[in-house]
Amino acid sequence: MSKRPDLVPQPYVIEMSNLQDKVKPVPFEEMAESLDLACVCEYQIPEERNRKKSEEQLKAARERKARAFIKIFDSFDPDPIACGSIAQVYKGVLEGKPVAVKILRPNLIDIINIDLSILDDFKPVVKRVLGIGKNFDIDAFLLEIREMLTREVDLRIEAVNMRRFEDNFKNVKNVAVPKIYPDFCSANVLTMEFIQGTQIKDIIDMQVPQSKKSEYTRTITKSYLKQVYIDGFYHADPHGGNMLVEENDTIAFIDFGAVGSIDDELKKNMLEFYYAINNRDVEEATQSFLKIGGADARDVDVRRLRKDMDELIANQNYGLEGRQSDNYAKLGLKYDIRLPGEFSTLQRAILLIEGVCLELDPRYNIKSIAIPVLMDAYKKLNATKGPALHIEFSAEPVNEKAELRAAIRELVDKMEDMGDRFLEGKQKESKRSVFSTEFFLVVLLVVSTFILLNGGALSWVGLIGFGGSILITLIALLRRD
After folding, report:
1. pLDDT tens, residue by residue, 191-250
2. What would the DSSP string read from start to end of 201-234?
3. For residues 396 and 370, is the Cβ–Cβ distance under 8 A?
4. Contact 68, 38 (CB under 8 A)
5. Which of 59, 138, 244, 302 sits most deeply, having the most CB atoms within 10 A of its CB?
């Protein structure tokens, strides 16, 4: 629930976040029911098996299973190094190498089913308290929670997530993911490489050169943007405790129980949405927001929505209180716009990344780091705003030549679009009029611009052609008037 700030008030989000790694540990012997790697073979006659065991007998059986589990490893420390509401993590040695062993808390499924049943009974109360509209499907929301928790309580799924991340970053030198030991993994136990490193949240207050901290922010940002906009598969809980810095300055991501995925359509809509926010374009942000929520403008008070969007964008860019993770999601609730769960999860995750990086480097600017990764995403998605975004996101000193080239590319895009519309109209009137003066002007403009941008020593030819086509177009327009 701490991952859904669109539905849960911020104070509750903060308190529930403490359950992620600050929970009172369960004694190792009581974890016995989850130790499904260990087998204690004890023959019992049917009558003995069916007889109710005393507490002493149950305790002795748990202790035997715990000892059998420990013997699987070269060495194993039964005191956990981290405790969460879902699992506890232990340190051991396997095949001569240090490993981290994540073990689920016992009887989780029963607890989850009881909690979800209570939530289901309180649906009318929840809807009234949260003030959600008719378009919010609370049954789908509860199903989403159930599916998410079901995935988190099967550590085989987390093992798959880790392998997938490892494959996505196999060619990236300064980002690491722990390797898993598949022969020592099960639904309740995940055995993985132990990462020797310092948590990012601890690096913040350490005497580390600022140049190093800035380097970490660049690595974290680029790797996360790659996860979201290139791979479409991202770590959904990237707080400072889930990222480690190794001795060689590699950033290692850990704890892949919570992950998210995003399809190409949502990627494109969110790229346009965040572009509009950074460009202070209220109208474009409003339209992109409606697209993300799949809402019909006729069913929404767009005028009021536009006004609220303007206020949020102003706070986002000029606010004194910093970024707030739940504003846009709350806006969806206010106007009964059903935002996809990925939007809220991803928004929170990106804000976590920004928060961590700002603590590492007060001069941190995500826009200046994001350019190369976002440009790759634009190419992959065939986004039409790539050149314009390159200028808007750039925090580097103004380069007049680069700015001119980008402006020319934008103009070419517009002229090509005009040419397409013109040809469609002409084809309906007469096939013979396709090869008209206007058509040749469009062709001349496109070819001249290509030579100007890529012609090297012959760029002057493209410049003459480009200027000539613009001049002829203006003369033609004046004559029409």
Report:
1. 999 999 999 989 988 999 999 999 999 999 999 988 988 888 999 888 888 899 999 999
2. HHHTTS---HHHHHHHHHHHHHHHHIIIIIISEE
3. no
4. yes
5. 244
